[in-house]
Amino acid sequence: MLEIGDLSLRYGQHLALDQVNLRAAKGETVVILGANGAGKSSLLKSIAGMVKPVAGSSIALEGRVLTGRPAHEIVEMGVALVPEGRGIFGDLTVEENLLLGAYAKRARNGESSRRAFVYELFPKLAQRRAQYANTMSGGEQQMVAIGRALMSAPDFLMLDEPSLGLAPVVVTELFATLRRVRETGVGLIIVEQNVKVSLSIADRGYLMEAGRIVGEDTAEALLRDPAVQRAFLGMN
Ligand code: ATP
Description:
binds adenosine-5'-triphosphate; 11 helices; alpha/beta; 10 strands; Rossmann fold; ATP-binding; four-stranded antiparallel β-sheet; nucleotide-binding
């Protein structure tokens, strides 16, 4: 279980996260919804150790404290982030990008079988393993980013706006693949503007507004919630 308790984050005077409480179990898919600037990326970055939360914040994985640890230790403990914008190395090949994901000690054993799993999940990457990442389409680059994160053998995979800039058919394919990742027992935490698609694979969701969690429910209930439909699904 990944448990976030009273997580607050400041950028200077700006309170980007205000006492956020959230939990996700292994094998569960949780979606975080909210308007631009609500703090969704900041939440994922806090969990990943990329920004430092305010004292008193608590982030724990299976009871072990993650708060304040550097990013590489958090990967080592089993939590990986696919950042917004993907963060892959364009002048490296697909395979080199994947191998970079396996630097964690926890990932060294079983590296080749995990690579085979990533290539099975994304057959396009297998065909293009020697291609430079910056010559690939947006959807393929997103596959590289997800593949690289999976190479670290995560218990929890966090994705920040994975569908951003992708054509609808590519988004559908991507979420079908995430469903398969989820079936392997990995917990997924997804920040996503594409609310309908993401809730369709999720168990639960949280609503964020101005740095706070303002709602929490099952994915099914959220899809039926008139406020969610108005705010995110373009319904009246
Ligand atoms: P988006 O979907 O637009 O990325 P978000 O919900 O992910 O939005 P965050 O990116 O977490 O929101 O930003 C939350 C708030 O913190 C915003 O008001 C943003 O302007 C501010 N913020 C984010 N990063 C920084 C930073 N490095 N320095 C100062 N303020 C920041």
